[in-house]
Design goal:
- It is built from 1 helix and no strands.
- The longest helix has 97 residues.
- The protein is rod-shaped and about 140 Å long.
- This is Cilia- and flagella-associated protein 141 isoform X4.
Length: 108
């Protein structure tokens, strides 16, 4: 009986050892999952913190571009208006010339 009880205790020890190895393997897997989960949460919060700054920079850049576009549009409109005035002035000069009249021009 003692050899059977020794065999039983060795078998139980082997079973306990195997189950301990499985538990350790599962614990390592859970630890890796927790580390991965923590890293993912950290990355998400990092993106959330960075994102407002990127949005602010983009809004600032868009505002600057819009201001420049408005300035350019104003310059284009002014140039077009200037050309229109010059064209009308020449047209009036021609009409006055045909009637034998002219604009008064002060000469220095």
């Amino acid at each position: 009986m003692s050899s059977k009880s020794a065999d039983m205790s060795v078998e139980k020890m082997v079973q306990v050892e195997e189950s301990l190895q499985r538990v350790l393997g599962l614990k390592k897997m859970v630890d890796r999952w927790q580390n991965s989960h923590t890293y993912c949460l950290w990355q998400m919060t990092l993106r959330q913190r960075r994102n407002p700054y990127a949005i602010l920079r983009m809004q600032d850049t868009m505002a600057q571009e819009l201001a420049l576009a408005n300035k350019q549009l104003l310059m284009v409109r002014q140039a077009a208006l200037h050309q229109l005035f010059e064209k009308e002035h020449r047209q009036y000069q021609q009409e006055l010339n045909q009637m034998g009249k002219a604009f008064y021009v002060e000469r220095l």
